[in-house]
Design a protein that fits this description.
By secondary structure, the protein is an alpha/beta fold. Helices cover 49% and strands 15% of the residues. Helix 19 (414-427) links the parallel strand 10 (399-405) and strand 11 (433-439). Helix 1 (7-22) crosses helix 2, helix 4 (87-97) packs parallel to helix 6 (119-131) and helix 13 (249-260) packs across helix 14 (266-273). The relative contact order is 0.08.
Amino acid sequence: MKFYNREQELELLAHTRDVAFNNHSQMTVLTGRRRIGKTKLVLKSCENTPTVYLFVGRSNEATLCSQSAETASRALNTYIPSGTTSFVSLFEALMTVGRNVSFNLVIDEFQEFFYINPSVYSGIQDVWDRYKDATHVNFIASGSVYTLMYKIFMEYKEPLYGRCDSVVKLKPFNTAVLKQILSDYHPRYTNDDLLALYTLTGGVPKYMELLLDRECFTVQEMIDAIIRENSIFLEEGNVLLIQEFGKKYGNYYAILSAIASGKNTASGISESIGSAGVGGLLQRLEEDYEVIARKRPVLAKEGTQNVRYEITDNFLRFWFRYIVKYQDYVQAGLFSKLAETVKADYPTYSGLTLERYFREQLKEKQMYKNIGAWWETSKGKDADRNEIDIVAISAESHKVFIAEVKRQRKNFKPELFQQKVEVIRTRLFFNDEIETACLTLEDM
């Protein structure tokens, strides 16, 4: 797949490189989940400039140093001693070269030193502090384990705290870029194809590439490609999360499985996993790992107990709902049966994702200061009856956009929707101008 988007990130990286090459060394931290395109971005930003790219695999430090020295020597066309067994010594040798040569130094999967030799970080701090003002190295530290990257660079007690000049956190492609990419691959795509790509990949570049390069353009083709023997998608959730969660991943998996199945309140999650003490785990999943988000009704107070949780990553949401739930099918090799199960449930499942799509699309317009959903909880047969899919509050005037989301317009019930609008008008927006709509696949 060709390079798409990332204009703002490239502009920032280009500016940082100019400062490093013309004034003094700069340190940039690049983070983002696995498969998000960090390496592709950083190499694109370094095109046509001297670049040393080092990948930190979880291996012996001496072996890593030997391989890295050879790589650096070739990239800079200069001699870098290959006999050192200390990465800090190698880093100092590279910074010494930076006295006379301007170059990019990219260290990918930088968090892996935590497992190889954690003292590398304090050693790099010492070298950086001594050399940065007299050298011209554009140093980019990239990593996909967010919790470790945050710890290394953002926690006060850590040696590299306060050393980075820029932080770039890479996010999935937005809805406009999804449309552009799908149009390039399949100009006659339908909005159902677009929704399927968004639902199953969440705009993660590598997932999109894997599907589109195989010419999987419809929901049936995408599901068949994801759920097949030897598909990388089947283990992808484990690869993404076990390194983040560590030994206690079982508790987190249970919570995420509960949320993916529709148990999205604290009480519902507790009941589902058979444990009352989920508050701390939910907080960690939200604040430390950023895997879930806590959602309140629009304009609800911070301390409200009327809270729902959702998995923020579309692919992980899909993976827990189907791959984890039906792991017995996977283990038994019943891939066709699992694919048919997913296809049967897809119309309902994708309807919920369509709501998320339209909220993101509204955010991209940058016209609204608050976008979310609204609901009132009650008991009995009318529980959750007063629920509205999208409420967007204008940033500049007393205007509110309220929408119901349906895959097909024939399922829209105008009278019931208007009753809900009148309820929320009475509760929250009695002085505001309200615009209403029903958003469907046709409006994507």
